[in-house]
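step: validate -> pass
step: tokenize input -> pass
step: predict -> running
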Amino acid sequence: MADAVRTTCAYCGVGCGIVATPGGARSATIAGDAAHPANRGRLCSKGTHLGETVGLTGRLLHPMIGNRQANWDKALDLVAKKFRETIDRYGPDSVAFYVSGQLMTEDYYVANKLMKGFIGSANIDTNSRLCMSSAVAGHNRAFGEDVVPASYDDLDQADLIVLVGSNTAWCHPIVYQRIQAARAARGTKLVVIDPRRTETCEGADLHLPVKPGTDVALMNGLLAWCDAEGITDPAFVADHVSAPEGFWDHIRTGHDLWTTARTCDIAPALLEQFYALFAATPRTVTMFSQGINQSIRGTDQVNAIINVHLACRRIGKPGAAPFSITGQPNAMGGREVGGLASTLAAHMDFAPDNVERVGRFWAAPKMATKPGLKAVDLFRAINEGRIKALWVMATNPAVSLPDAGRVREALEAVPFLVVSDIMADTDSSTHAHVRLPAAGWGEKDGTVTNSDRTISRQRPFLPLPGEARPDWWIVKEVARRMGWRNAFAYDRPADIWREHARLTAYGNDGQRMLNLRAWATIGNDAYDAMEPFRWGGTAFADGRFPTPDGRARLVLTKQMEVQEPLGQWPMTLNTGRYRDQWHTMSRTGLSPKLARHREEPLVEIHPRDAGALGIVDGDLARVATAQGNSIFRVSLSEGQRPGEIFTPIHWTDQMSSGGRTGLLPRPLVDPHSGQPGFKSTPASVEKVAAEWKGFLILRDQAATGQPVKLPCLWSTRIAVPGGALYEIAGNGDPARLDAFLPKGDRVEAMDASRGTRRIATIGEGRLNGVLFVTRTGLLPSRDWLIGQLLVEGVGGSVLAARGPGSQPDKGATICVCFDIGLNQIVAAIREQQLVDMPAIGKALGAGTNCGSCRPALANILAQSMQETLHAAE
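step: predict -> pass
step: emit ->
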């Protein structure tokens, strides 16, 4: 057996340690690393099932020029030539890089150095702009540097944890488990501030369902309360914090309890309960994520939170801090090297002395002297003809950026587009002139930084497939071909790491906390063996901040004017993540187990709104905004505030005919950070009628190769063991779908009264595919049919869609690890009289592995017990 390799998870900014043991045929066994400080051996559902995503399905394995395979020399020469010609003709600002938090720090460093020091433009931005750049801007305004002043250990020592704009149970499950452990061990209180009642709210001490976009008012009201109650620390503020003129007059005017409650649209008594709890609990950690950052006033929202912690001296002490939790595995590493267009490098901005210092260190021929184009502006500049050549690395902007229809137009219009990615076909790469095969997780070698400043190694345990190469290698080879051979003479990631570490220390006499001097001279073996470490120690414990005068800054923040519903767009659209999916599904979409939790892209809508629109659960509905529209499956949810809807961000044209959330949000951005506002777009919803519905199941290569584009109104591809399931619906004659069934002996059954057709193709006793459609009848559960993809001796009786003595429908999958459905859980609770979570785990196994389903289990248990009490009455 191959040796186990300690590495880091590929997903969120928690940065969990993983132990991967490679197996045969591109497989791996995954376990949590008990020695890693971020997760201590725990993994969520996505991390647990990483082994299902390391195959070669859909991989880009060779350089491609247009639709023709090319060798590396030809592809790299072409990229270098086109970029050089564009720069010579139009200047350095005519080219741009759009990169990703999926890159290693070493990848990021080389790309940033090439663009800002040698091409001479700052037009390099990252998809991290979309998730945490408002936190960066807020940190810089308050502290003078982008420093997260907290660690996960603070969660263990806090007496109150406030989650603002974060569905932590789904988006950062290991953090949520750590919070729950603290609650069990020390009685820590939990407050969740979120317009939606998500699974994170289950069991919380308080949930404040505030009106979207009112977080500044909420936090200014909290600070006003603390000021009036004597909870602030005037001595600390006088010695260590600066306030702009009129700051306290602003806080003390118009932020009383009643005004704030009215602005936030919550009950004054509920708001008072939160304020009193905060005031009485010095050890408070306030964690915030996309609900705060993804706003056109995101930076002010960040600073409103930080203001409270500074004024009350809940910072620099154990269990007391404002804590930004990031979405991507290396968003922080990108921030450290300067991967944002608004920063230079190593936490330095574009001040002349910084430009001179970095230029001297790099021996750069042409330094960028001002910030470049941020993500939304970058793609707008392409449509305006100002960007002539673009290189997209490890991201899919045609899906993830707001107003994605316009982004797609930009990708089609740019004269020269390079995409380096692990996948052969994405919504973005279909427009590329050159596609370059990059290394994926399990093949990458480098470092990443998580949300609490812990740097970890990501180590390879699988060979590079085909002609795939690391991103740093691809970029440095282009740089060398553009004429800068000596400046990019890297042989390994350790070479880049040492240079990056030296730059953080170069000319840094304490002005910046990011200083990796101690790691600047480590050897290759020491780099390979590097243990996780957290730079910067306990931030601000001495009351000093990395500003010119050593003082933090309170920032004057104002509540934005919350837009009321418009006549044409009466609803407010919120967007976000699902528990078991990741970004645009190029990795998680390969996992049959991860697909089962939420199989289709849903629009969640309050039953009252749905009733007014004539929509019922399971219908199809079109969500429209001024930017575009897309179709979703309807899910009724009491957790939605009336007048508001929610859709997930993950689905692409490769996975579904609808569910394209990126088409919908406005391309409006925060004026300080440039981060788009994804959380409050005016929208409308209308029912979409379908004459028939059905599903198509395909086995093996027919399912796992190029996604099938089905000629119908609605189709969604779902990975299943042995193949793929397509949920479908449409109008007209569904017979045109017959052509998509694989070859084989064909069996068919019809029910004319219900307009039902069932067709299967069988080859050598194996099920190749099935197609079930109906106009008025019911469709059977798919589970038994999916299981038939993996068995031999299948016959015509497969059309019955169940075998002798087969089990009843297990319901929607709740526990992905053990494939346990809602109906099974409810039945076990009732029949075995289960009364707590350990009892459910003992009976079914649910919740005993990764723990991601525990909030859902708690909710099911509470509902079942409530129904039992009502029945007894």
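step: describe -> The CA atoms of residues 818 and 845 lie 7 Å apart.
step: cleanup -> pass
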